[in-house]
Amino acid sequence: MLRRPINHFRSFLLDKLVLRPTRDRVDHGMQQRLVLSSRFGPLETFGLANFPDPNFLQPDFAASDFVATDPPDLLLLKFPGTAGRAERSSSFPADLMRDTRTHVWTWNPPGYGNSAGRPTLRRIAAAAIDFFNASIQRYEQLYDAPLPPVWLCGNSLGCATALHVAAVAPQSSTAIRGLILRNPPPVDLVVKHVARRYPLGKLIHPVADQLAPSMNAIYSASKVTQPAIFLQCQNDSLVPPELQQQVRDAHAGPQTLVPLKSLGHDGVMDEQHLPLVREAVHWLREQSNLSIRPLP
């Protein structure tokens, strides 16, 4: 009789250990705010239209609702990490593909920013499917054109979300052509890894074991056949490379690894990392048959 209440309490504790939601106002820069629907209420999304420009100007952002002269060649859906916010999203990796018209849409999951709902791991996984479906529906409303290739880009916890979407979302097998995953965490193993630093840390193991399959990156990766880039911070102490490797080993599709030397979990890439990242992005374009539009 006590099993279900105990497991519910463990899930509650796991959410508190993993998630770092904020609702404060954050400057969203050049991005445009868009509200998409989900089963939990409105999902706040921020978008950027990164279009080819022969003079390499700032991204040309449409005046209203992402509408531009031509439909994009690529739709990039981004999933931030546990403390991330869509307002701070960059145009990466669109900024490395100046010959490709790209829309970059980043969500705030339930409980983050102005997205409705409570922040829980299970709710984030379910809402991510709604975000994917609503993004495709909105694109179809905006353009009388076939859906372009879709890439999913995840950072840290956002990798588990992106893998879940790729594994189970309707249309994922045809719409999603690739993934870019930075420091993907097997969440339960990461929680146990961090718990080792504290006395009686093993007491947290039953809490970590309560992780739902929908946010289990190893489980989801085994069902994902789309090609993936794995960006791995070599000095990551939160999600060590050996734990990230377990997600890579489970991934069922083609992949390429980009080791980000000397970077910790939240480290910022610089010029020394860009050549390998560009090479990997070019590989993913070839794998996903992404057309290249000549610059004027």
Automatic annotation (TrEMBL):
Keywords: Hydrolase. The keyword Glycosyltransferase does not apply. One of its GO terms (molecular function) is hydrolase activity. SUPFAM superfamilies: alpha/beta-Hydrolases. It comes from the Bacteria. The keyword Repressor does not apply. Residues 94-187 form the AB hydrolase-1 domain. Pfam families: Abhydrolase_1. This is Alpha/beta hydrolase family protein. It comes from Novipirellula galeiformis.
